[in-house]
Design goal:
By secondary structure, this protein is of the alpha+beta class. Strands 1, 2, 3, 6, 7, 12 and 13 form a seven-stranded mixed beta sheet that branches. Strands 4-11-10-9-8-5 form a six-stranded antiparallel beta sheet. The two termini are 26 Å apart.
């Protein structure tokens, strides 16, 4: 089983777990997005830790390791957590994304290869054969090499949807790739991918050295490209803020390890009770 198939097997198992025990993911997502009360970006880093622990606690045949930022910078692939299938021993990296409902970055294209490859074809690529020839180029290997698990949130309505982009369908159904020049707030040009009905699929943003991480790479849009996503949560899940968790964090930061150890025992007892109620 290769990296891509191993990841698809994992997301299928995760979807099944959530369908049977929605309360577990609702609690976890509520805790993750409560972190936005502490800071606008705090939830993203803590989501990596939370999802890794969710896997370890509730998915008995998978094990997860939080890679950490220092190790992440040293790696050639985009990776926040590593997941190991305890049955097959397949090991694969996963990039966690906690984004608002809208534009979603799937890859930063660190090698700056996708945009220049598309430029070789001019301003438009039409026809199934021409499109597939370009997408088969090694420059687009990242379509299958990056496993992105996006936690898409709608803060106004306090809801979250875990959406996985269907790379296979995106590649097979792309019928036209068109270059869109600068404008409408864009500093750099982009290439947009469309299906045979003219519907938006994804886009490749400028990949030059003067583009930052948010101006380059492979992007899509969770609303405009919704048909090319699979919802692991079966649609939107309502979450609520856990103000007790904010207070716990606040007091934990000014207490000792002795107090932390005592609190940890109580938390572990609660997790055991959640498992028992869920039949895990």
């Amino acid at each position: 089983m290769d990296n891509f198939d191993a990841y698809k097997d994992f997301t299928s198992r995760l979807k099944l777990l959530i369908s049977k025990n929605p309360a577990l993911i609702t609690t976890t997502l509520s805790n993750i997005f409560t972190m936005r009360l502490i800071g606008n970006k705090t939830h993203g880093d803590l989501a990596e830790i939370a999802i890794a622990e969710f896997i370890n606690q509730y998915m008995y045949d998978f094990r997860s390791i939080h890679v950490g930022k220092d190790l992440y910078r040293a790696k050639s692939k985009e990776e926040d957590i590593t997941i190991i299938n305890e049955i097959t021993q397949a090991e694969f990296p996963v990039s966690l994304k906690a984004y608002g409902d809208g534009p979603l970055q799937l890859s930063t294209d660190k090698s700056f290869s996708m945009f220049p490859r598309l430029e070789q074809e001019g301003s438009e690529i039409r026809g199934q054969n021409a499109v597939q020839r370009v997408l088969a180029d090694p420059a687009f290997a990242e379509f299958h090499n990056i496993n992105v698990l996006p936690l898409i949130y709608d803060e106004k309505n306090q809801r979250c949807n875990i959406l996985v982009f269907d790379y296979d369908r995106a590649i097979s159904e792309t019928a036209r790739i068109t270059k869109i020049e600068r404008g409408a707030g864009r500093k750099h040009p982009i290439y947009r991918f469309y299906d045979s009905d003219g519907a938006y699929i994804c886009e490749v943003r400028y990949g030059g050295a003067d583009a930052n991480a948010l101006q380059r790479g492979l992007w899509t849009h969770t609303r405009n490209g919704l048909p090319y996503f699979e919802s692991i949560t079966g649609g939107w899940i309502d979450y609520s803020h856990n103000y007790v968790l904010v207070e716990l964090f606040s007091q934990a930061l000014v207490s000792s390890e002795v107090g932390h150890a005592s609190a940890l025992e109580k938390v572990q007892e609660d997790i055991a009770l959640l498992k028992q109620r869920s039949g895990i």
